[in-house]
Amino acid sequence: MSGTTDGATGGTVTAVSSNGEYSFTKPNRPSITLLAGLGVEGDVHAGVTVKHRSRVAQDPTQPNLRQVHLIHEELFAEVADEGFEVTPGDLGENVTTRGIDLLALPAGALLRLGDTAVVEVTGLRNPCLQIDRFQGGLLRRVVGRDETGRLVRKAGIMSVVKVGGVVRPGDPVVAELPSGPHRPLDRV
Fold it and tell me: Looking at the record, which segments are called Disordered (predicted)?
């Protein structure tokens, strides 16, 4: 991961994915367009209010804090060491990155993607049993406990679109940390 003196860190977009239908995985695309306040154009999870089925069942009027799902490509190598084959889009993410520690970002961090798009980090993806339906035993690899017994979720982060724009593989990702005390990510 690279760093700068102004509190920004950066990486690279390695893949972008979207799907207009509910399915666990999302096909890779040459580009995706982020729409301010909505999410990924044409993606089933785009919208002002929550679109994830379990959340809709609880309260369909909740704000959609899960408009764009980002995951770090380094996770794929980590689970490959344990016999799992995971590639971009397989876990339902919209943006796959390399070289930036997404899980260490605080809530409210801004991610600049490509030339114009900006998303605000809202929290951690809460992995569900669908991951085990995709590959049996994988859920245990993306959710675990640290040495203190604290729950660790590694299946990426969620965000909302602040500024729209086109995002492509190879685009830079630059994180800008919020001022003041940082609030660690929690599940959303």
Answer: 1-22
CA 5 to chain centre: 25
Number of other CB atoms surrounding residue 177 within 10 Å: 16
Average pLDDT over residues 97-125: 97
pLDDT for 7: 55
Listed in sequence order, the residues at least 6 apart from 57 whose beta carbon sits closer than 8 Å to its beta carbon are none
Whole-angstrom Cα distance, residue 40 to residue 32?
7
Q: How far is it, in rounded angstroms, from Cα 125 to Cα 40?
A: 17
Assign 3-class secondary structure to the chain.
CEECCCCEEEEEEEEEECCCCCCCCCCEECCEEEECCCEECCCCCCCCECCCHHHHHHCCCCECCCCEEEEECHHHHHHHCCCCCCCCCCCCCCEEEECCCHHHCCCCCEEEECCCEEEEEEEECCCCCHHHHHCCCHHHHHEEECCCCCEEECCCEEEEEEECEEECCCCEEEEECCCCCCCCCCEC
Domains of the chain in sequence order = 2-176 (2.40.33.20)
Amino acid symbol at 20: G
pTM to 2 decimal places: 0.93
The pLDDT of residue 3 is above 70 = no
